[in-house]
User: Which sequence fits this backbone?
């Protein structure tokens, strides 16, 4: 039976050598090429990049061969490159799209295949479905032009994407005050593509940049996976404490996500980081514009929208929903619970590097440390918000489990009254305090997630446990 390639929350991911094989990558590339031809992009150029996972550069070369054989020019990155840098290269090179070989934050056994359009952002769900439909059933139907031939003919061109991106960042933000601030910044690159970028952007001044996990190691030692949440970041938090750092910046495997540790070496969860970034843009920079959020992220954004008079749009989970909405509304900021944030003036793609720089700028402009910034935020909102999530494998048929969740019809969760149920993506139960609990199946892994946010610190675990019970997990 032919392996069926499907695109989840952010592209196709699979286990290397089991379902993520060269033949299947070539099939996926042919589907994308056929889609791009349907969209009227004959003869245009496409950017192809990759991460530091096992054999990523060779999978990227295989994609370049297929695209070149289909009549596209290909800009192939000369080294492992962060996802936001690949996204910006689409604009810089006036390309019609991109393919990115990365499994982002997945375990080391996996690799992935992300596709992007002419904005550098994610292709919408309808486009992804069309790509899936165009993927041939067998590799014999895939066109290929040997890489050496394509390079010799100039159909494939290797390039350094970093220079144009760094120049772009320097236009978005004056970095000199950060360089002069004398901060101590620990950067955990999680063995990924973000290594070297903060020293390159901020080096040469009084601020010290100390990097860890900044070489290539596809096994991702000292963490379960390169995802910027605990326990994966525990070594980074300890390094921040040892160096008495003012802040810990963490970028995930492909550097599109950002995690934060405060001046005490304590983790600041990603919902709070998103609210801090929105607050910084609205209050400190005085900017205005729409906020785009997935339903799995913080209601603090809704409160900020009310306070600053800007609209807030809620979408399903994944940048395949966020990116098109950001483009449609010219949004100020867009983001999701996983720690991915995108910004107006950049590309509609998550950027863990720019997010980290904006947080440093927030500190420098206010003269405050991360815990003090949080206190400013909570004072503005009039409440403190608490969040947690549980990921668990599940057995049985997903459709049956979804039907059981909907039939449960709980009146209270964690002792709080349920005020509304939203089924945009999963099952979100809104609660009387303005908080929520969400049960959702991952789009990239065989797991179920239960999330919650509440203004009651003592109710977080009770809400999560009720969520597991509603989902039929003891």
Assistant:
């Amino acid at each position: 039976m032919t392996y069926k390639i499907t695109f989840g929350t952010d592209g196709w991911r699979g286990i290397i050598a089991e379902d993520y094989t060269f033949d299947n990558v070539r099939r996926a590339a042919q589907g994308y090429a056929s889609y791009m031809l349907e969209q009227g992009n004959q003869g245009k150029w496409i950017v192809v990049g990759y991460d530091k996972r096992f054999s990523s550069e060779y999978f990227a070369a295989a994609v370049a061969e297929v695209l070149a054989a289909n009549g596209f020019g290909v800009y192939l990155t000369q080294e492992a490159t962060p996802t936001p840098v690949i996204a910006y290269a689409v604009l810089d090179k006036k390309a019609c799209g991109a393919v990115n070989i990365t499994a982002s934050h997945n375990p080391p056994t996996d690799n992935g295949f992300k596709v992007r359009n002419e904005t550098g952002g994610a292709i919408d769900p309808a486009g992804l479905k069309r790509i899936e439909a165009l993927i041939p059933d067998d590799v014999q139907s895939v066109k290929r032009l040997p890489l050496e031939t394509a390079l010799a003919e100039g159909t494939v061109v290797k390039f350094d994407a970093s220079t144009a991106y760094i120049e772009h960042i320097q236009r978005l933000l004056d970095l000199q005050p950060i360089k002069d601030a004398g901060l101590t910044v620990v950067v955990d690159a999680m063995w990924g593509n973000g290594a070297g970028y903060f020293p390159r952007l901020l080096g040469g001044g009084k601020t010290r940049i100390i990097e860890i996990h900044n070489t290539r190691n596809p096994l991702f030692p000292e963490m379960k996976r390169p995802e910027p949440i605990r326990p994966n970041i525990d070594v980074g938090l300890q390094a921040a404490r040892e160096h008495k750092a003012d802040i810990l910046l963490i970028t995930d495997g492909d550097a599109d996500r950002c995690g934060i540790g405060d001046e005490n070496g304590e983790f600041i969860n990603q919902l709070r980081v998103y609210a801090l970034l929105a607050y910084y843009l609205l209050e400190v920079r005085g900017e205005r514009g729409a906020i785009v959020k997935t339903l799995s992220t913080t209601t603090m954004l809704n409160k900020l929208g009310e306070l600053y008079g800007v609209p807030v749009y809620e979408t399903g989970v994944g940048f395949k929903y966020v990116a098109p909405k950001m483009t449609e509304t010219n949004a100020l900021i867009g983001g999701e619970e996983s720690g991915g944030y995108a910004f107006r003036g950049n590309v509609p793609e998550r950027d863990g590097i720019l997010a980290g720089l904006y947080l440093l700028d927030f500190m420098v402009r206010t003269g405050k440390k991360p815990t003090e910034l949080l206190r400013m935020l909570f004072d503005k909102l009039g409440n403190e918000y608490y969040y947690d999530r549980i990921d668990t494998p599940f057995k049985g048929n997903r459709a049956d489990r979804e039907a059981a969740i909907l039939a449960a019809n709980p009146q209270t969760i964690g002792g709080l009254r349920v005020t509304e149920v939203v089924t945009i993506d999963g099952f979100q139960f809104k609660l009387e305090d303005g908080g929520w609990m969400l049960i959702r199946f991952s789009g990239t892994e065989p797991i179920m997630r239960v999330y919650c946010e509440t203004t009651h610190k003592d109710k977080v675990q009770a809400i999560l446990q009720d969520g597991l019970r509603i989902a039929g997990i003891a």
Remarks:
- The chain has three domains: 12-164, 173-381, 386-470.
- The CA atoms of residues 136 and 300 lie 45 Å apart.
- The two ends are 36 Å apart (CA to CA).
